[in-house]
Write a structure and sequence with these properties.
59% helix; 6 strands; three-stranded antiparallel sheet; 10 helices; disordered N terminus; mainly alpha; 8% strand
Length: 261
């Protein structure tokens, strides 16, 4: 499913934000909550069999209707009708394949898989070309338009998937910042990192990135003060010491000061 009809542009599916099915700047996503939920589940595993039991667990959790299989088949029928009615495919897309269904679509039409491909490329570039890695990771993060599947009533399967996607987003942001620091953009990052640290007061990775950016910008004393403040917070609130990476970074900052005296 790379094109709709004739020379119409490819359909794009978005999960990194509201679920949309876009063609020619028009959103053709189904409006029924259960059909939308079913579509999200099939998109999340595009090209793979999603078994009927997983669909039932997602759509109804612990309270399925008496005729649950028939009801599920009705929602599959409505999804197929939505695709056919709007001319979103030239052939069958929702394919019955025991023990469930396969959504046959090119994964590059789904923003999640584009995001994951760009993240992998950015990670691979980091060691050799941090500037290119930063550009690639920025492009990946630009695909996000809000919380994942923001308009979908998520059951247990999609809720877990949404949490995983947020983790992937945070990891991509961390890598992007790391790449920008290594590309010499540390000064420009300081305001963003201060904001992120304020939003995530216990995130030691972000604290470390801000400390490194401050140190590289000639603001070593600020970086060391940050470490002391975080150490106090972790001790008082959680009874913990900063992680080994932060302790090592503190020692590096102290040794720079010693070597310049």
């Amino acid at each position: 499913m790379t094109r709709a009809r004739g020379d119409q542009p490819a359909v794009r599916f978005t999960l990194l934000g509201p679920l949309e099915v876009r063609m020619n700047d028009v959103d053709y996503a189904p409006t029924g909550p259960k059909v939308l939920q079913l579509l999200a589940l099939l998109l999340m595993r595009a090209g793979q069999v999603v078994d009927a039991d997983t669909i039932i667990r997602e759509l109804w959790s612990q309270d399925p209707p008496r005729s649950v299989r028939k009801t599920m088949q009705t929602y599959v029928y409505h999804l197929r009708q939505c695709i056919e009615r709007n001319g979103l495919a030239g052939g069958e897309v929702v394919v019955t394949k025991p023990p469930g269904y396969v959504f046959k679509v090119d994964r590059e039409q789904i923003d999640v898989f584009t995001f994951q491909r760009l993240c992998k490329l950015g990670r691979d570039l980091l060691a050799t070309d941090p500037a290119a890695a930063a550009d690639t990771l920025r492009a990946a993060l630009a695909l996000w338009a809000g919380p994942p599947m923001a308009n979908v009533p998520c059951g247990p399967v999609l809720s877990a998937y949404a949490v995983d996607l947020e983790e992937q987003r945070n990891a991509a942001r961390y890598l992007r910042i790391q790449a920008e620091i290594e590309a010499g953009q540390h000064r420009a990052l300081i305001p963003e990192l201060r904001s992120l640290v304020a939003e995530n007061p216990h995130d030691e990775g972000l604290h470390g990135q801000l400390m490194r950016a401050l140190g590289l910008s000639g603001r070593r004393l600020e970086a060391l003060e940050m470490y002391r403040d975080l150490r106090t917070k972790l001790n008082e609130e959680l009874g913990l010491e900063p992680c080994a990476d932060l302790q090592k970074l503190q020692q590096e900052l102290l040794s720079v000061g010693t070597s310049t005296t």
